[in-house]
Specification:
Largest sheet: none
Mean pLDDT: 84
Low-confidence stretches: 1-8
Number of domains: 1
Number of strands: 0
Order of helices and strands: HHHHHH
Shape: globular
Oligomer: single chain
Strand content: under 5%
Structural class: mainly alpha
Radius of gyration: 15 Å
Length: 144
């Protein structure tokens, strides 16, 4: 069952991952949480598909950390994470395949949101994403 946003003034009880394995597990949980949005698509008159879930990644990051999903700070975090996606899908980027792999795109935005929240350092964020790239490249994750 999906978690709800904490009440104002309350912090989430979900601790920030401290190892790469913990980050992978949390990103998988965040993906499952975001997938629940698909059922609300018809109500809003849109079809939400896997390749669009990266848009929700910053909101899930805010939710998991107990931050308010609205307001100036939340908007800045969301915009920063999504700008990171744009930069990493440019033709001349070193990180290839982000736009072709919905889970990698989601992971990128999820980790970028944590970076924007000052909860993960840049070097660690790169390490997390490198592990995500290698793990998602495995055939067991639906890629050939």
């Amino acid at each position: 069952m999906s978690e709800t946003f904490p009440k104002p003034g309350k912090r989430a009880t979900r601790p920030i991952p401290t190892t790469l394995v913990e980050w992978l597990a949390e990103i998988a949980l965040a993906w499952m949480d975001a997938e629940e949005a698909k059922s609300f698509g018809p109500i809003a008159g849109v079809k939400i598909t896997d390749d669009k879930l990266f848009h929700i990644a910053p909101l899930v990051a805010l939710k998991f950390r107990g931050w308010k999903p609205t307001g100036k700070k939340a908007d800045t975090i969301r915009k920063t994470a999504l700008a990171n996606y744009v930069v990493n899908t440019a033709r001349d980027t070193a990180r290839k395949g982000v736009e072709a792999d919905p889970k990698l795109a989601f992971a990128l935005c999820y980790v970028a949101a944590h970076f924007a929240m000052d909860l993960v350092e840049e070097e660690i964020a790169h390490e997390i994403l490198e592990v995500c790239e290698s793990e998602l490249a495995r055939p067991t994750h639906g890629r050939t």
